[in-house]
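TL;DR need structure tokens for one chain.
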Amino acid sequence: MKRLILLLLIVFICYVSKPLWEEPVQQLVPSSSIGDSFRSTVDFVKDKANNNFSLNNLNQQLNSLFQSHDNPPSESRDANVETPELTAPKDDTFSIHNIELGESRDEVEQETGEPQRTSKNEYGVSWEAYHHNYQNFIMVAYDKKDIVRGLFTNQDLIASSTGIELGSSKQAVRDQLGTPESTMRKGLVNYQINGNGEYDVFRLDNNYVTVFYDEHENNTVTAIQMIDEGLEQNKDNIYTESSQQLKEGFEYQLFDLTNATRVKHNLPILTWDNDVRETARKHSRDMAENQYFDHTNLQGQSPFDRMKEDDIQFNMAGENLAYGQFSSIFAHEGLMNSLGHRENILKENYQYLGVGVAFNNKSQPYYTENYYSDSLSL
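>> reply
TL;DR here they are.
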């Protein structure tokens, strides 16, 4: 019996080690002017030396597979990190990590400790990322006086005077908060808000509150962003003028959001990889400059061809693409609502991630995520 199981596993592994294939994925259109804005490749496995599995590798992997039933992998969640006890907000409809817009940096950091990263955002200020190994993850934007003007989380840190929390249904949100905004004015232009049901924007307490929903979890609340009305109105256009700082900010924000989501799903966090970030950057720049959107570039190279050309050593790899989203938050939440992209984000055996961003001449961002592992694990 054991030999039969071993034979079946060998046949299965040989099948899945075939060359690159792509899975059709659901597409998201964030606005009527952008079109097809998300694409994903499915990961594949190959041996670095000769594109085939050696018998030794098979034996090692099969042994580890049998052993894994007795020794399951440990979760990434740190048992020593406690989720804060959440209390209803005092002044606003929502709070995050017991923090409300209008509080001071000192008040925030009494709750959170020091930020783990500071990166430029689309509002001309910075997101400060607070977390403990990506647990209790929040991002906070301050003004020049260190007053909180923006908040975000995709973890169970949401409290509301209406009872809305992470996991609440879309219908419950709309019942409590009313009809979402359909337009947002920027300068002399009214922009249509087209969340395609994946998010709602509400104007509450002189703030803009965006509630994101997870279509793969019964359209329940998966994240929330709160932006002070003054900060939002200081942003003259839907897209922020491109800069080196904003490019790097979007890259690191998308990386942090990915790890915060993986921790929420009890998966290991990924390691940032500068080398594959350069691979991703070059592809984003190529798409932006040459006005196309595809995994295969104009020279016919696949993501895996590009990684090999840059001497990235991998056994397993995947790529997610997005473009036209207003920020990395909108890009990430949209990717999570598309099955092929979601599978890459939540792939347990990936080890490394590099994110590359570039802007076209309309300041629309192109995002490329390159995931990979350099050790073979099933």
